[in-house]
Design brief:
Layout: H1 2-9, H2 19-29, E1 60-67, E2 79-88, E3 93-99, E4 104-106, E5 112-114, H3 117-135, E6 141-146, H4 147-156, E7 160-164, E8 168-174, E9 185-190, E10 193-197, H5 199-207, H6 215-233, H7 242-249, E11 253-255, H8 259-270, E12 277-281, E13 287-289, E14 297-299, H9 301-311
Helix pairs in contact: 1-8, 2-7, 4-5, 4-7, 5-6
Length: about 325
Amino acid sequence: MAVIAVALSSAAGGFAYFLPAIQEAFDATNVSVVVPSPTPSPSISTGTATPTPPRPPGAFTVLLLGSDNDTKFTGSVLTQSMIIVRFNPGSKKVVMLSIPRDLWVPLSTGGIGKIDGAYSYGGAGAAIATVENNFGIRIDAYIWIGLAGLINVIDQIGGIDVVTQAPVFDDFYPHDIGPGDPYQYLRVAVLAGPQHLNGTLALQYVRSRHNDLQSDFGRSARQQNVLLALRAKAAGISAEDVPALAAALKGQIKTSMSLSRIATLLPIAGAIDLKNIQQVVLLPPYTHGCGCAQGYVVPVWGAILPLVHQYFP
């Protein structure tokens, strides 16, 4: 429910007005999960790591996870998106760093693999530990949302408005949400320019990974753009909308964030202007392709870690 809470903050001046409604939303989802403290493995190394400077007072870092919890899976699932978000109440700024899902890293559960497997192997705790160990960032909380949850909440608020920089055409989009054969494919298209997207189109926009000239990096940028569009649309949300939003997300969201922490973040998020949200995507020279059949992304830690420490002190 942290997503709803932060969205609500842009529609009002203080959290007290919304707190009872947010509590009702928490009761409706009933899937808050506590993350165990990760234990870094001494075998994990990120290369030329530099000491991380002290964090600004009050800074709070959240790991956003989006999973393809579709009908092909009955147990553990991969993360389609991993975004590190840092709230800085002193500067009233937010930084969003997208991690490529195919980034090849040491996993906290052991071995080396694509970072999207961390959640599958060990849940949120493993995903957090893997990010902390490799990027040198302390994660304070996580928020996980399933694909159906994203569709439902966007439909509930009446869709979102985005300006797409390039068209999205995909002849191999998985037909795994809703009725039908989950192993079949759909042909989807989102044209360039101003677009009003319902939940299904928004999911197609952020999830498609074929025919993008920037490959998975283009998808990372699209995911961040949809988050910004949700933030902008939240201006029209009122407390009366919260129960319906909670019902739309029921069973599709998990978080380790406490209600008191959300109450603290509400006025901070409400004071943040969209122009003060910094978007970071790990394009080359921070990463490069492996040139191999596995299709993983190779991190260049000597370039990544200074960038990370710049935006996440």
